[in-house]
């Protein structure tokens, strides 16, 4: 399957890229900065430059052309401020315009901690807005909320369960195990139209 990942240059994106490549998928990382290309290509992914100098409509059209034929879009970038939530909407809109039905959003509700530029309420509101935008679209979407992320080695163990309102999942989990959970979610058609949490067992 051809997988498009927004946020592929971040640590979680690298874990997702690795997990999908190990499954035999063709992975494309959507990047804004050219200097991020080499690390993704070293992993074995291809890159899709996002020209953020374009106006939103032109950017959506440009990305949609690159997304044609993809089997799924995975949003692994931050959505906890207005700019990031807006980028998520553009990414989703481009996938929808390209006819890609399957979308998975990885949503981390702990990102405001230690960020003086992000007031907690505004951060959560941006998360809600990004999730609600995806849910409002005629797509086969799944939202996976994570607890605090770590760089722990993969265990292959995780628990997926329905999310509870606007509650951040407890505890912590390694990015590699989150990536394994996302791969499992994409492999299960029964997980569409659901907001889930992934936690350590």
């Amino acid at each position: 399957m051809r997988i498009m990942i927004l946020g592929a240059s971040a640590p979680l994106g690298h874990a997702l890229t690795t997990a999908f490549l190990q499954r035999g998928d063709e992975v494309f990382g959507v990047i804004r900065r050219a200097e991020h290309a080499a690390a993704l290509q070293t992993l074995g992914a291809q890159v899709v430059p996002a020209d953020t100098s374009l106006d939103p409509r032109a950017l959506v059209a440009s990305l949609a052309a690159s997304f044609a034929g993809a089997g799924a879009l995975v949003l692994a970038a931050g959505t906890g401020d207005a700019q990031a939530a807006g980028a998520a909407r553009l990414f989703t809109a481009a996938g929808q315009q390209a006819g890609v039905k399957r979308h998975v959003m990885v949503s981390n509700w702990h990102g405001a901690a230690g960020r003086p530029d992000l007031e907690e309420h505004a951060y959560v509101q941006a998360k809600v807005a990004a999730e609600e935008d995806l849910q409002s679209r005629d797509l086969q979407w799944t939202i996976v909320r994570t607890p605090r992320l770590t760089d722990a080695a993969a265990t292959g163990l995780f628990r997926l369960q329905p999310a509870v309102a606007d509650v951040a999942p407890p505890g912590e989990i390694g990015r590699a195990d989150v990536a394994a959970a996302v791969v499992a979610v994409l492999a299960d058609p029964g997980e569409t139209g659901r907001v889930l949490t992934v936690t350590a067992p």
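The beta strands are 2-6, 26-31, 46-49, 72-75, 102-108, 140-146, 148-150, 159-162, 172-174, 194-199. The helical segments are 11-23, 37-43, 56-67, 82-97, 120-135, 175-187.
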